[in-house]
Design a protein that fits this description.
This protein has 6 helices and 14 strands. The chain is α+β, with helices and mostly antiparallel strands and about 250 residues long. It is elongated.
Length: about 250
Amino acid sequence: MLEMIALFTDFGVQGPYLGQVEIVLRQQAPGIPIINLMADAPPFSPLASSHLLAALGQYLLPGTVVFAVVDPGVGSSAREPVMVCADDRWYVGPGNGLFDVVMGRAVSAILWRITWRPSSLSATFHGRDLFAPIVAKLARSKNLQDKELLGKRWNEALVTKDPGDLAEIIYIDHYGNAMAGIRAIKAGQCQRIRLPSGDWVSGARTFHDVAPGEGFWYVNSLGLIEIAINQGCAAKHFKLEVGTPIELKG
C-alpha cells in the first residue's frame, strides 16, 4: 500500500491556511509525500465539491489518505467530523455531505465518527487542529485496529448507494471552462446541452474540432461533461457559475 497524503480544499493557495495544514502534516507524518490535489474547490459548496472529489479520487492509489475540507459549518454541532475508508482510500473531513458521492460509488465503504480530540482545538480551524493530525495518524498507522482507535463506526449513518450525477456546474477553471457533475457514461445519447442563458452547445471531441470562438461541450480528462469555448471564456460568455443548472438533450 502506498503511503501518500492528498489535499482537497477550498482554502486557495494564497493566505496562511494551506501552509498551516502542511506544517502539521510534515511535523506529524515526516517523510510521507503530500500532494496538493485541489486548493480551489467550490467555496462553501460540499455538494459540488463531492462530485469533484469523487472524480479526482478514482485516480488515487490504494492507501492514499485524503485531507478533504470544504466546511462552511466549521465549529457547528450540525456536522460531525468523520473519516471514511472507501475502496482502500481514506478520507478525513467534515460530515456535511462532502464524502457522499465517494461512498456511494465505492464497492466498499466504511464510515467513522471521529472521537479523538487534540489538547487544543480552534473553533474555526478544524482543518489544522483536528483533521490534519488525524490524517497524519492514519498515514502512519500500519493496521486497521490502530486506525479504528481514532473514531467510532457510524453504522446507523445512511450511505446513498446511487448518489446519481449532478446536472449543474461544479467547477470553473482559470480558462473559464465549466465542469458539470455529469459523468460521460451517464450522458447517454446527448447531442446538445441547453444553458439557462438560452444558448445551446453541441458536442465535440477536442478544442481543435471547433473554430476559435465557438462554444461546445466535451468529455474532459476526469470523465465529466465540460463546457468550453475554443480560445475563449465559456463562463463569462454563457454566464455560468457553480450551481448553474444545465439540460442535456438528445
